[in-house]
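Ligand-bound model needed. zinc ion.
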Amino acid sequence: MIRIARIAAGVSALTFACASAWSFEGFSDAPGSHMETMKTALVAVYRAPSSRPVLVKTMPVFGLKTYEWEAYRAADLLSDASRDIDSHFFGILYPHAQTKSFPYSRPLDAVRLRAIEEEALFDYVVHMGTWIDRVRRGFAAGDDREAGYLLGVLAHSYQDLWAHRGITNEMHKALLAHEGIDVDRDSGRVLEMRERLSAWLADLPAILGPEAGPAFLAFLRSDAEIAPFPESERKKLLGRGRDIFVHGIGFVLFTSSSVNSLRHRADIEWDVDVLDGLLRDGEALDAASRLSGPAELAAFLEARGYDFRASE
Ligand SMILES: [Zn+2]
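Prediction:
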Protein backbone atom coordinates (compact mmCIF):
# COMPACT_ATOMS: atom_id res chain seq x y z
CA MET A 1 0.00 0.00 0.00
CA ILE A 2 2.74 2.38 0.96
CA ARG A 3 4.52 1.52 -2.28
CA ILE A 4 1.34 2.15 -4.30
CA ALA A 5 0.73 5.50 -2.59
CA ARG A 6 4.34 6.46 -3.20
CA ILE A 7 4.11 5.56 -6.87
CA ALA A 8 0.86 7.50 -7.25
CA ALA A 9 2.37 10.58 -5.63
CA GLY A 10 5.50 10.23 -7.69
CA VAL A 11 3.71 9.85 -10.98
CA SER A 12 1.61 12.92 -10.30
CA ALA A 13 4.87 14.78 -9.67
CA LEU A 14 6.30 13.56 -12.98
CA THR A 15 4.82 16.34 -15.07
CA PHE A 16 6.85 18.85 -13.11
CA ALA A 17 9.91 16.69 -12.68
CA CYS A 18 10.33 15.58 -16.26
CA ALA A 19 9.24 18.77 -17.92
CA SER A 20 11.14 21.19 -15.78
CA ALA A 21 13.67 19.66 -13.46
CA TRP A 22 15.66 17.25 -15.59
CA SER A 23 17.76 19.68 -17.56
CA PHE A 24 17.22 23.12 -19.03
CA GLU A 25 13.48 23.05 -19.71
CA GLY A 26 13.31 20.03 -21.96
CA PHE A 27 10.12 20.02 -23.93
CA SER A 28 8.64 23.50 -24.29
CA ASP A 29 9.79 26.68 -26.01
CA ALA A 30 9.68 28.68 -22.75
CA PRO A 31 12.51 31.20 -22.16
CA GLY A 32 15.62 29.29 -21.09
CA SER A 33 14.45 25.98 -22.61
CA HIS A 34 16.60 23.89 -24.93
CA MET A 35 14.38 24.79 -27.87
CA GLU A 36 14.16 28.53 -27.22
CA THR A 37 17.86 29.06 -26.48
CA MET A 38 18.84 27.06 -29.57
CA LYS A 39 16.53 29.01 -31.87
CA THR A 40 17.56 32.35 -30.40
CA ALA A 41 21.25 31.54 -30.83
CA LEU A 42 20.83 30.32 -34.44
CA VAL A 43 18.95 33.47 -35.39
CA ALA A 44 21.47 35.71 -33.62
CA VAL A 45 24.60 34.03 -34.98
CA TYR A 46 23.46 33.13 -38.51
CA ARG A 47 20.26 35.16 -39.13
CA ALA A 48 18.72 31.77 -39.86
CA PRO A 49 15.11 32.02 -41.07
CA SER A 50 12.63 30.42 -38.65
CA SER A 51 8.99 30.28 -37.58
CA ARG A 52 7.36 30.48 -34.17
CA PRO A 53 6.40 27.06 -32.79
CA VAL A 54 2.70 26.69 -32.00
CA LEU A 55 1.81 24.20 -29.26
CA VAL A 56 -0.54 21.46 -30.48
CA LYS A 57 -0.73 19.19 -27.43
CA THR A 58 0.98 18.19 -24.19
CA MET A 59 1.21 14.54 -23.21
CA PRO A 60 -0.33 13.96 -19.78
CA VAL A 61 2.05 13.05 -16.93
CA PHE A 62 5.26 13.15 -18.95
CA GLY A 63 4.83 16.64 -20.36
CA LEU A 64 6.12 15.85 -23.88
CA LYS A 65 4.95 18.64 -26.18
CA THR A 66 4.00 18.55 -29.85
CA TYR A 67 4.38 21.71 -31.92
CA GLU A 68 3.52 22.92 -35.40
CA TRP A 69 5.41 25.49 -37.44
CA GLU A 70 4.03 27.67 -40.20
CA ALA A 71 7.17 26.85 -42.18
CA TYR A 72 9.60 24.26 -40.77
CA ARG A 73 13.12 25.24 -41.77
CA ALA A 74 16.64 24.35 -40.64
CA ALA A 75 16.65 26.45 -37.44
CA ASP A 76 13.24 25.01 -36.51
CA LEU A 77 14.51 21.48 -37.12
CA LEU A 78 17.64 21.98 -35.01
CA SER A 79 15.78 23.58 -32.10
CA ASP A 80 13.01 20.97 -32.22
CA ALA A 81 15.61 18.16 -32.26
CA SER A 82 17.45 19.65 -29.26
CA ARG A 83 14.62 18.23 -27.09
CA ASP A 84 15.06 14.60 -28.08
CA ILE A 85 17.84 13.61 -25.68
CA ASP A 86 15.48 14.21 -22.75
CA SER A 87 12.85 11.87 -24.18
CA HIS A 88 14.98 9.17 -25.89
CA PHE A 89 18.09 9.10 -23.67
CA PHE A 90 16.50 9.88 -20.30
CA GLY A 91 18.13 6.90 -18.60
CA ILE A 92 21.65 7.38 -19.99
CA LEU A 93 23.77 9.93 -18.18
CA TYR A 94 26.55 11.01 -20.54
CA PRO A 95 24.37 12.73 -23.18
CA HIS A 96 23.30 15.05 -20.33
CA ALA A 97 26.92 15.78 -19.31
CA GLN A 98 26.44 13.74 -16.12
CA THR A 99 28.26 11.08 -14.14
CA LYS A 100 26.77 7.68 -13.23
CA SER A 101 25.76 7.18 -9.61
CA PHE A 102 28.43 5.92 -7.20
CA PRO A 103 28.37 5.04 -3.48
CA TYR A 104 27.84 8.09 -1.25
CA SER A 105 27.58 6.55 2.20
CA ARG A 106 31.24 6.97 3.14
CA PRO A 107 34.15 9.08 1.85
CA LEU A 108 36.01 7.78 -1.21
CA ASP A 109 39.74 8.19 -1.76
CA ALA A 110 41.28 10.48 -4.34
CA VAL A 111 42.26 7.61 -6.68
CA ARG A 112 38.68 6.33 -6.85
CA LEU A 113 37.26 9.84 -7.31
CA ARG A 114 39.67 10.58 -10.13
CA ALA A 115 38.70 7.31 -11.84
CA ILE A 116 35.02 8.27 -11.56
CA GLU A 117 35.70 11.64 -13.20
CA GLU A 118 37.88 10.08 -15.93
CA GLU A 119 35.23 7.50 -16.85
CA ALA A 120 32.44 10.06 -17.07
CA LEU A 121 34.61 12.39 -19.18
CA PHE A 122 35.49 9.55 -21.55
CA ASP A 123 31.82 8.67 -22.15
CA TYR A 124 30.92 12.32 -22.75
CA VAL A 125 33.86 13.14 -25.04
CA VAL A 126 33.42 9.97 -27.14
CA HIS A 127 29.71 10.79 -27.45
CA MET A 128 30.41 14.35 -28.61
CA GLY A 129 33.25 13.38 -30.95
CA THR A 130 31.57 10.43 -32.65
CA TRP A 131 28.29 12.31 -33.17
CA ILE A 132 30.05 15.39 -34.56
CA ASP A 133 31.78 13.05 -36.99
CA ARG A 134 28.46 11.50 -37.97
CA VAL A 135 27.05 15.01 -38.58
CA ARG A 136 30.16 15.91 -40.58
CA ARG A 137 29.81 12.85 -42.81
CA GLY A 138 26.09 13.55 -43.28
CA PHE A 139 26.56 17.13 -44.47
CA ALA A 140 29.54 16.13 -46.62
CA ALA A 141 27.38 13.47 -48.32
CA GLY A 142 24.52 15.91 -48.97
CA ASP A 143 22.17 14.39 -46.36
CA ASP A 144 21.34 17.82 -44.93
CA ARG A 145 18.02 16.95 -43.34
CA GLU A 146 19.38 13.95 -41.45
CA ALA A 147 22.65 15.68 -40.49
CA GLY A 148 20.70 18.74 -39.29
CA TYR A 149 18.46 16.59 -37.13
CA LEU A 150 21.42 14.76 -35.56
CA LEU A 151 23.22 18.05 -34.92
CA GLY A 152 20.14 19.43 -33.18
CA VAL A 153 19.94 16.32 -31.00
CA LEU A 154 23.63 16.58 -30.14
CA ALA A 155 23.33 20.29 -29.29
CA HIS A 156 21.36 19.20 -26.19
CA SER A 157 24.50 17.53 -24.83
CA TYR A 158 26.46 20.75 -25.31
CA GLN A 159 23.71 22.81 -23.64
CA ASP A 160 23.52 20.43 -20.69
CA LEU A 161 27.23 20.83 -19.98
CA TRP A 162 26.41 24.25 -18.56
CA ALA A 163 23.63 22.93 -16.31
CA HIS A 164 25.25 19.77 -15.02
CA ARG A 165 29.05 20.06 -15.30
CA GLY A 166 29.34 16.33 -14.63
CA ILE A 167 27.16 15.93 -11.50
CA THR A 168 25.16 12.74 -10.82
CA ASN A 169 21.37 12.50 -10.65
CA GLU A 170 21.50 12.31 -6.85
CA MET A 171 23.56 15.51 -6.70
CA HIS A 172 21.11 17.12 -9.11
CA LYS A 173 18.25 16.39 -6.73
CA ALA A 174 20.24 17.11 -3.55
CA LEU A 175 21.34 20.54 -4.76
CA LEU A 176 17.72 21.54 -5.10
CA ALA A 177 16.58 19.87 -1.87
CA HIS A 178 19.40 21.07 0.39
CA GLU A 179 20.94 24.14 -1.22
CA GLY A 180 17.99 25.52 -3.16
CA ILE A 181 19.97 25.41 -6.42
CA ASP A 182 17.98 24.32 -9.46
CA VAL A 183 20.86 23.72 -11.85
CA ASP A 184 18.48 23.75 -14.81
CA ARG A 185 16.85 27.05 -14.03
CA ASP A 186 19.51 28.99 -12.19
CA SER A 187 19.59 32.30 -14.07
CA GLY A 188 23.39 32.46 -14.07
CA ARG A 189 23.67 28.99 -15.61
CA VAL A 190 21.04 29.74 -18.25
CA LEU A 191 22.85 32.96 -19.17
CA GLU A 192 26.21 31.22 -19.39
CA MET A 193 24.67 28.47 -21.52
CA ARG A 194 23.26 31.06 -23.94
CA GLU A 195 26.67 32.69 -24.34
CA ARG A 196 28.60 29.44 -24.71
CA LEU A 197 25.99 28.00 -27.10
CA SER A 198 26.29 31.02 -29.41
CA ALA A 199 30.07 30.71 -29.39
CA TRP A 200 29.94 26.95 -30.11
CA LEU A 201 27.45 27.43 -32.94
CA ALA A 202 29.64 30.18 -34.40
CA ASP A 203 32.58 27.75 -34.35
CA LEU A 204 30.62 24.87 -35.92
CA PRO A 205 31.59 25.52 -39.57
CA ALA A 206 35.25 25.23 -38.55
CA ILE A 207 34.55 22.23 -36.27
CA LEU A 208 32.76 20.45 -39.15
CA GLY A 209 35.58 21.20 -41.56
CA PRO A 210 36.02 22.33 -45.18
CA GLU A 211 33.45 20.02 -46.76
CA ALA A 212 30.65 19.83 -44.21
CA GLY A 213 31.03 23.36 -42.79
CA PRO A 214 29.85 25.23 -45.92
CA ALA A 215 27.02 22.70 -46.41
CA PHE A 216 25.87 23.31 -42.83
CA LEU A 217 25.93 27.10 -43.39
CA ALA A 218 23.99 26.89 -46.65
CA PHE A 219 21.43 24.58 -45.03
CA LEU A 220 20.92 26.92 -42.09
CA ARG A 221 20.51 30.03 -44.22
CA SER A 222 18.21 28.44 -46.78
CA ASP A 223 14.54 29.37 -46.91
CA ALA A 224 13.64 25.87 -48.03
CA GLU A 225 11.04 24.05 -45.95
CA ILE A 226 11.87 20.65 -44.48
CA ALA A 227 9.56 17.75 -43.69
CA PRO A 228 9.41 17.37 -39.87
CA PHE A 229 10.65 14.06 -38.50
CA PRO A 230 7.92 11.67 -37.39
CA GLU A 231 8.69 9.71 -34.21
CA SER A 232 9.32 6.52 -36.24
CA GLU A 233 12.12 8.24 -38.16
CA ARG A 234 13.63 9.74 -34.99
CA LYS A 235 13.65 6.31 -33.40
CA LYS A 236 15.40 4.81 -36.41
CA LEU A 237 18.11 7.49 -36.53
CA LEU A 238 18.71 7.45 -32.77
CA GLY A 239 18.64 3.66 -32.58
CA ARG A 240 16.22 3.77 -29.63
CA GLY A 241 12.72 4.84 -28.66
CA ARG A 242 11.54 7.15 -25.89
CA ASP A 243 12.95 5.72 -22.66
CA ILE A 244 11.48 8.53 -20.54
CA PHE A 245 8.38 6.40 -20.02
CA VAL A 246 10.44 3.98 -17.92
CA HIS A 247 13.41 5.99 -16.68
CA GLY A 248 11.46 9.18 -15.96
CA ILE A 249 9.44 7.26 -13.41
CA GLY A 250 12.62 5.74 -11.96
CA PHE A 251 14.16 9.20 -11.60
CA VAL A 252 11.17 10.59 -9.72
CA LEU A 253 10.55 7.58 -7.49
CA PHE A 254 13.88 5.93 -6.86
CA THR A 255 16.63 8.55 -7.18
CA SER A 256 17.76 9.71 -3.76
CA SER A 257 18.08 13.39 -2.84
CA SER A 258 20.21 12.58 0.23
CA VAL A 259 22.67 15.26 1.22
CA ASN A 260 25.39 12.55 1.32
CA SER A 261 25.76 12.72 -2.45
CA LEU A 262 27.05 16.28 -2.22
CA ARG A 263 30.08 15.14 -0.20
CA HIS A 264 32.13 14.53 -3.34
CA ARG A 265 30.46 16.95 -5.71
CA ALA A 266 33.50 19.23 -5.98
CA ASP A 267 35.78 16.20 -6.47
CA ILE A 268 33.99 14.93 -9.57
CA GLU A 269 32.74 18.15 -11.22
CA TRP A 270 34.35 18.85 -14.58
CA ASP A 271 36.81 21.52 -15.67
CA VAL A 272 34.28 22.93 -18.12
CA ASP A 273 36.53 25.59 -19.65
CA VAL A 274 39.15 23.11 -20.85
CA LEU A 275 36.40 20.74 -21.95
CA ASP A 276 34.74 23.53 -23.92
CA GLY A 277 38.05 24.32 -25.61
CA LEU A 278 38.23 20.68 -26.75
CA LEU A 279 34.63 20.68 -28.02
CA ARG A 280 35.38 23.76 -30.14
CA ASP A 281 38.46 22.22 -31.76
CA GLY A 282 37.29 19.71 -34.40
CA GLU A 283 40.63 18.01 -34.94
CA ALA A 284 41.41 17.68 -31.24
CA LEU A 285 37.91 16.36 -30.54
CA ASP A 286 38.36 13.73 -33.27
CA ALA A 287 41.69 12.68 -31.78
CA ALA A 288 40.27 12.60 -28.23
CA SER A 289 37.28 10.48 -29.16
CA ARG A 290 39.55 7.89 -30.78
CA LEU A 291 41.63 7.37 -27.61
CA SER A 292 41.50 3.88 -26.16
CA GLY A 293 40.21 4.63 -22.66
CA PRO A 294 39.59 7.02 -19.76
CA ALA A 295 43.24 7.16 -18.59
CA GLU A 296 44.47 8.06 -22.09
CA LEU A 297 41.84 10.79 -22.34
CA ALA A 298 42.80 12.11 -18.89
CA ALA A 299 46.43 12.50 -20.02
CA PHE A 300 45.28 14.13 -23.28
CA LEU A 301 43.10 16.60 -21.35
CA GLU A 302 45.81 17.39 -18.82
CA ALA A 303 48.16 18.26 -21.70
CA ARG A 304 45.51 20.82 -22.69
CA GLY A 305 45.46 22.25 -19.14
CA TYR A 306 42.61 20.20 -17.62
CA ASP A 307 42.61 20.48 -13.83
CA PHE A 308 41.09 17.42 -12.13
CA ARG A 309 40.66 19.50 -9.01
CA ALA A 310 39.28 22.53 -10.83
CA SER A 311 36.02 22.83 -8.94
CA GLU A 312 37.37 22.07 -5.44
ZN1 LIG B 1 19.33 16.69 -20.70
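The chain is about 60% helix and 5% strand.
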